[in-house]
Amino acid sequence: MLQSTIAKIRPLDRAFFQKAQAHLDSQTKPKGSLGVLERVACRLVAMAGGEAPRVDPARIYTCAGDHGVAAQGVSLFPQEVTRQMVTNFVMNGAAINVLTRTADVDLKVVDAGCLGGRFPEHPALVQCKVAPGTRDLSTEAAMSREECVRALENGIALAKAAHADGIVTLGTGEMGIANTTPATALFCACLDLPPAAITGPGTGLGAEGVRHKIAVIEKALALHAPTIAKADPIDILASLGGFEIATLAGMILGGASLGMPLVIDGFISSSAYVAARAICPLVAEYAFFSHASAEPGFAAVMQRLEAAPLLHLDMRLGEGTGAAMAVFILRSAANLYTDMATFSAAGVHSGE
Ligand SMILES: O=C(O)c1ccc[n+]([C@@H]2O[C@H](COP(=O)([O-])O)[C@@H](O)[C@H]2O)c1
Ligand SMILES: Cc1cc2nc[nH]c2cc1C
């Protein structure tokens, strides 16, 4: 399933970009004056195969998982908060519930690998538990390769289910106490960034806590150096990642294979993107970064990826909250492309 999904990811046709830009240039505005919205519109047109860009309906999958590395004291919060927040998501009480409702975006919560047993069945909850939490990546591999592939395939299945439900745009979201640690380790391993430069407070560590977190990540990178040197992206993800991160990486691969616009949320979701990109670089064609996470290492990650996030709102929550906000930007770009009058139709002098 993984190999066949990767094989289906296609580059976008550059001719569609030119056609889309020509249409934008014929609309009643100075050329290029809608800035990023024009570039978003062109990409959406290319994803729609040259047809009118579409965004809705959109869905966010908020994938939750627990992390053995929490035992090293790398988060301000105890692990049980992951499970408690999943229940909060299902009960509609979290920020992501408010923002998806406000943005008219569908939300599904995913148990990708939370501690404890199976959650009670609920229409908003998808059961994809690979195992009850990962192992401690600073002392051993977080996942076996088999577990990692299972999580990737769960993510592919989520993308396929969304597509089958008629969903056009997929957004990523996550919840997992301590998951900024595996996310940072993945950035270091995949993008060759030093831990000291990109490790931050996550949920709110102080300076001493961040120093300790850097030491834990450095230890993990040293332990897994032979795996990192071999550069097999699935083995790296298995060693350093998490179940929600691997599930989201699979979702990104699956969504790209179906030609769906992908909205990548903050710091941790971007690590899932980096893992997916290491498996298949063409996922870049389909990805939009919703917002600049306030986690301090995020700027260096975007620079390495030569990517620019759409929104700057000082957010660092995760859950998919930035993705929910960014759907409005995609929708606005698509509607401008479709609904604005051209110079000739409106009888406005085009300046040429
Ligand atoms: O997405 C972000 O930009 C982001 C930045 C910092 C923290 N978070 C959230 O906070 C949790 C991880 O933080 P930590 O300190 O426990 O590693 C996890 O549930 C994430 O959703 C999310
Ligand atoms: C309360 C809480 C909510 C969250 N949502 C995403 N990460 C989170 C971390 C905490 C601690």
From TrEMBL:
Belongs to the CobT family. The keyword Transit peptide does not apply. Its EC number is 2.4.2.21. Pathway: Nucleoside biosynthesis; alpha-ribazole biosynthesis; alpha-ribazole from 5,6-dimethylbenzimidazole: step 1/2. Keywords: Cobalamin biosynthesis, Glycosyltransferase, Transferase. The keyword ATP-binding does not apply. CDD domains: DMB-PRT_CobT (cd02439). Catalyzes the synthesis of alpha-ribazole-5'-phosphate from nicotinate mononucleotide (NAMN) and 5,6-dimethylbenzimidazole (DMB). Transmembrane segments: none annotated. It catalyses: 5,6-dimethylbenzimidazole + nicotinate beta-D-ribonucleotide = alpha-ribazole 5'-phosphate + nicotinate + H(+). One of its GO terms (molecular function) is nicotinate-nucleotide-dimethylbenzimidazole phosphoribosyltransferase activity. This is Nicotinate-nucleotide--dimethylbenzimidazole phosphoribosyltransferase. InterPro entries: Nict_dMeBzImd_PRibTrfase, Nict_dMeBzImd_PRibTrfase_bact, Nict_dMeBzImd_PRibTrfase_N, Nict_dMeBzImd_PRibTrfase_sf. Pfam families: DBI_PRT. It comes from Desulfomicrobium macestii. The active site is at E319.
